[in-house]
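REVIEWER CHECKLIST
Item 1: Sequence provided? yes
Item 2: Single chain? yes
Item 3: Sequence as submitted:
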Amino acid sequence: MGPHPAVAAIRLAVRRVLHDVLTDLTDTPAGPRTAAGTRPLVLVACSGGADSMALASALAFEAPKLGIRAGGITVDHGLQPGSDLRAAEVVTRMTALRLDPVESVAVRVGRDGGPEAAARDARYGALDEAADRLGAAAVLLGHTRDDQAETVLLGLARGSGIRSLSGMAEKSGGPGRSHRYRRPFLQVDRQTARKACMVQSLAVWDDPHNIDPAYTRSRLRHEGLPALEKALGKGVVEALARTAQLSRDDADALDAWAAEAETGVRDADGRLECAKLYALPPAVRRRVLRRAVVAAGSPAGSLFARHIEEVDRLITGWRGQGAINLPGRVEAQRQGGRLVIRQG
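Item 4: Structure as written out by the authors:
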């Protein structure tokens, strides 16, 4: 008799991602093993919640069959009393699954961008540091199809454009580690992950922040999505997740077009020419502008559609306006038919 359908579903999702990790490693000159000849290491980021515990369990089961070492990291954000004890419990649970190495990493959460964004930045910073230090080939994240639907709705509400509507990518990461983070569960619903934990008798922790109405995502999860399903019927989550994939395909194509177009709108000194920018389709032009602003030092996470629209007006609605101030102390100014973007 095979495993419960929920367990089989999460294991299959993880198995596919691990095969993908091995393929990516094989395509590099170093091959699938490290310089020391050790087996590649894949980490799971585990909060102790149902999604990440289901992911940790599936990784522990599938990784040894593929010659992969499986480890785990839990991040203590220090935002709740006893968070250090909770992190220690998660370490104990991951160790019981025979993950190795297993670590708890404490972080300090700042205030930039609001509590949710600040916690996310601190968390990814800790995961990046741990992955670099341990030499991990990938870090698995437990985001589900429900999380994807919430992300799409948040992007829609903020009016952030098609890239925001594309939600979370199956693979992501910063410069030099574009495929570090893997999300095996983007096609798996939250209930399947919780069911998998239940049938395996895995203890899970429900973060009180997930039901705290002070957090935007919490309100969306417990009020917004249920209201949409009541008004529109079941299937809203699946439709939003499908929208994310379609939007991602379109956004990727436009990004590639913008990367090619950028070289043709610069003069011999590398400065952006306003007349040539004006001739581009708006969706491509704005992507070229965004690329230039980020390259000048503006943090991508702090750069919103309204910022790029203001820069775009220097091209399409030129009335002699002054410099545009952008996040990261970057400014954009039109000078002699050229668009100058630099850090002040």
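Item 5: Key structural point noted by reviewer: The radius of gyration is 22 Å.
Item 6: Recommendation: ____
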